[in-house]
Amino acid sequence: MKVASTMTAVGLPPAPGGGSWAATGGRSSKALVLNATMEPLCVVPARRAVVLVLSSKADVVQTNGHRFRSAELDIAAPSVVRLRSFVRVPYRRRAALSRRGVFIRDGHTCQYCGRNAENVDHVVPRSRGGAHEWENVVAACRRCNSRKRDYTPAEAAMALRRQPYAPRAAFWLVVAVGGVRDDWAAYLGDVTSAG
User: Fold this and answer.
1) Number of Cβ atoms within 10 Å of the Cβ of 27
2) Predicted TM-score (pTM) above 0.70
């Protein structure tokens, strides 16, 4: 399928010789962008990663099996790219708390009984002074959430399977993508561990 106008609209330069680009191998997915120091920076569409490589701003570290082709050029779609120049980013001490992030951190598992989690629960209820922070929020099933109500786990005779913790700052990348992709795991490290 010819996608020249779409590719140019998202930033892919015109194909060499005035031809057009074709994306092959299905949907071209996303790419992880690493800083020059190999730290994860962001996730971009694979097309944007190709632009970074073609403009000599990044090098391909790993490909995803898809291809971008024109009459004169055939490029493997990147899965991971590394910037050639260091980009300074503001220091983030911790990832922002979100419902989706809590579910990913806790493996979509109730931290009281081990069933599939559907809710989030404040270990120390907010009405009793509990903070809305990583260390006080866990994934919980409806049954455990209803049983615990406005009590602490000790008062409700319930035990946590694992203490809640704040994941590393790069955890937001995992939340944005919905999980740790196998081809990115080596570059993200253990972002779901305590920060």
Assistant:
1) 9
2) no
